[in-house]
Amino acid sequence: xxxxxxxxxxxxxxxxxxxxxxxxxxxxxxxxxxxxxxxxxxxxxxxxxxxxxxxxxxxxxxxxxxxxxxxxxxxxxxxxxxxxxxxxxxxxxxxxxxxxxxxxxxxxxxxxxxxxxxxxxxxxxxxxxxxxxxxxxxxxxxxxxxxxxxxxxxxxxxxxxxxxxxxxxxxxxxxxxxxxxxxxxxxxxxxxxxxxxxxxxxxxxxxxxxxxxxxxxxxxxxxxxxxxxxxxxxxxxxxxxxxxxxxxxxxxxxxxxxxxxxxxxxxxxxxxxxxxxxxxxxxxxxxxxx
Amino acid sequence: xxxxxxxxxxxxxxxxxxxxxxxxxxxxxxxxxxxxxxxxxxxxxxxxxxxxxxxxxxxxxxxxxxxxxxxxxxxxxxxxxxxxxxxxxxxxxxxxxxxxxxxxxxxxxxxxxxxxxxxxxxxxxxxxxxxxxxxxxxxxxxxxxxxxxxxxxxxxxxxxxxxxxxxxxxxxxxxxxxxxxxxxxxxxxxxxxxxxxxxxxxxxxxxxxxxxxxxxxxxxxxxxxxxxxxxxxxxxxxxxxxxxxxxxxxxxxxxxxxxxxxxxxxxxxxxxxxxxxxxxxxxxxxxxxx
Lengths: 290, 290
Known about the structure:
By secondary structure, the first copy, chain A, is α/β, with parallel strands linked by helices. Chain A is built from 10 helices and 10 strands. In chain A, strand 6 (113-118) and strand 7 form a beta hairpin. At the A-B interface, strand 7 and helix 7 of A face strand 7 and helix 7 of B.
């Protein structure tokens, strides 16, 4: 039990929303995995799960998820323990990704850092003094709603500026792109990473959107740095991992000229960061690491 | 030795800039104070000092001050220990104010909170898990440079938005006020608190500037809340303590509709918050509190 991956298994949550079905799905997966490595059921020492939402780690409850599921107060830890007769632990998915990078990834040995997950949405996992900092109501790092200069007002809310997620999240970028319709020959339904790919090959509209995204991301990092003064930010998520976004954000951040400039790194584990964090959490839960 | 104030003494730093003169000035003050309470020199168990700048608490060095003094790498703790032959401790002044409010003020019993000092400038003292959080390079909470929507671009930096301090710090507010020249019968050299007083008595220009200030302050609190999810913000400093600013910021913050709305309180100790924090630090340094 040293943190080496023995097998993996995937299932999609498309087609269902309820937690019971999700747990059945996980149960099915674990059965497959145990078979694959020829291990008996009682070999399962612990189970850890990440939830895409606000998670009460102490109580083992997913308080709310924004995407897909729409869960409210789901006692996921107890459900997993009932299903597997093994100790379970749960946490927010971005927190687990931060934990993974902290354990053996880009932030190994760095006691204070921020993991920025930029995929469909935007969130942060914050590690302070070597520990996840989750906030009083488990919502620390919910920076998707952050107000940064340069984001236009939210539709219908004239006096309220736009949010970070609406501008630099994957969905937000796709929406911005549709406004470039008459400035580019490219299709108007590109994803954020496709748009950034085209920025690298010289499409002026894509370059412009990349520039805007990186400027806003750098401003968010700058604002968070002023609060936390931590020496490292790690970019993760499908959008956040893109090399062109990384390079442009690095440049924009240097221009903002912070007194103590944080390092900016890309996630080592990419889409697997969360899994590595869950592995670490499961090892902790099993008492295998001290 | 229970934290009760026995005597106070003031001296101005106007007319000198160097640390040696400041320490002589403190020495003179301590002599006066000891005489006042008829205590011998060896009754001084410890000394604590707040510095208006970035302070390395471990090394006892004031790394940099922005205002007035312009200190760089001043070993203030050692200088105080040499002068008084007693253990000394130093910290950033806003951190000390946060410590004071945490100890016996507005944040007593609240493990996570942010103290916002708004005077000439703007800074934050952050308490997490009951302890001051100072950041890797001692600059956590230096939010004066925060970029918030609604602040116009910095002069000469077309693409760089204005900073929080430039808009809601005392100096920034005075500067904004001068632009209202033809919209008010009031003099153009009012201080921030005078302007807010006039907002309360119905001057439309003063009301407008109060509104703008509170909107930007609420956005800063909102952004910090998204990062830290702490349940309390305490407003301090001569500008931050103004009742009109407090009321308007409270209203603006509620309109921003955070998932978990933090409480907003005014400092209990006002201009003395820093002194109370220094007292606590001195008691800790003397080993009088466990």
